[in-house]
Amino acid sequence: MSPRLTQLLEAMTPQERSEVEAFAAFIIVRRQLLQPQLLTDDISVQELTELVAAAGSFDWLSAEEEDIYSLEDGESVQWPRP
Q1: What confidence tens digit (pLDDT) does each residue in 37-78 have?
Q2: Which of 45, 56, 73, 76 is the most exposed place for a label (fewest CB within 10 A)?
């Protein structure tokens, strides 16, 4: 280990050292991944859509409790003529 790295580690709190240790372990495990491209920020719209749908974050939109308005509510809109 380099003297600079030793110096930096000695200046850290135990919590910070624990975070560095976890990150170092991640770097080593990452070498063994078969598909390292999954670690990038590139995700297709299709994959993102599937992820959002599977997460259930928008399930409330189809809940009956959310249907508080009907087509009979409100007034018709009169758009101005150009």
Answers
A1: 555 567 788 888 888 888 887 888 788 777 788 888 888 888
A2: 76
What are the residue ranges of helices labelled H in 14-60?
14-30, 45-55
5-36 pLDDT, tens per residue? 899 999 999 999 999 888 888 888 877 775 55
Residue keyed to tokens 């009907």: 70
**pTM for this prediction:** 0.39
Q: For residue 39, what are the contacts with CB-CB under 8 A and spacing of at least 6?
A: 30, 33
- Both structure tokens of 42: 């590139």
Match 């170092």 to its residue by tokens: 24
